[in-house]
Amino acid sequence: MSTSAQKLYEGKAKIVYATEKEQEYLTYFKDDATAFNAQKKGTIVGKGEINCTVSSALLKWLESKGIPTHFIDQPSSREMLVKAVKIIPLEVVVRNIAAGSLCKQTGLNQGEKLPFPLVEFYLKNDELGDPLLTCDRLSILNIIPSEQIEQLKQYALQINQHLQEFFQSCQITLVDFKLEFGFDSENNIILADEISPDTCRLWDELEQDKQKRVLDKDRFRQDLGKIESAYQEVQQRVLTQIEKLKNS
Ligand code: 5GP
Questions:
Q1: Which atom of ligand 1 is nearest to the CA of 132?
Q2: How far is the CA of 84 from the centre of ligand 1 (A)?
């Protein structure tokens, strides 16, 4: 990345730079880690490289399955070249198994399989703590029309099916994950942001122990230790599986 590149936005885990092309941005993945709306802060050594590499591989693979994404290229280990999008200020969470805030808010037991994939919308607003939205709140906020909310839900469900299948082949259970979408230059909705151990809950199917099986950011959130090796394990399994699929 050129030092003169114009920084457009710096978030908790990534920096977005302008490029010579108006319709392309360069995202730089940092090692910084935050949780609980940035009340907990730290560094996960090598996280930026792993999240950039895992996200690039998964976004490229989803693209091959017909899901439109912002991914263009991974020019270096921590950099992803993406289509410039206007981010929709919604976090779209898909859950297959009860964990995290769903358990806290509903009393469902952690690890309980849900009867169907649950798609939830949260307002992407740090000051408000990313609140969960109801259908009517979504409609009153009028961030995007209801038909586009339905389109987000359908994309989220399709992505869940693809990712569940993919992670299963890596012997990893996809518990839940968060997606972000944006509008490209032609106003199409495309998948943006990242898909990584920062944004997914991933449990190792080869491990029965409830703490040892955690391969994602919950290791940081819950101070479980061995965060770097868990992220490395995800990267290794994802890349091995992508290679296998390429050669099959
Ligand atoms: P929960 O609502 O249980 O905290 O999170 C559900 C899923 O979405 C988890 O996989 C979690 O990692 C992801 N997620 C939700 N909000 C955020 C966020 O603001 N940042 C990141 N990195 N992941 C999130």
A1: 2
A2: 23
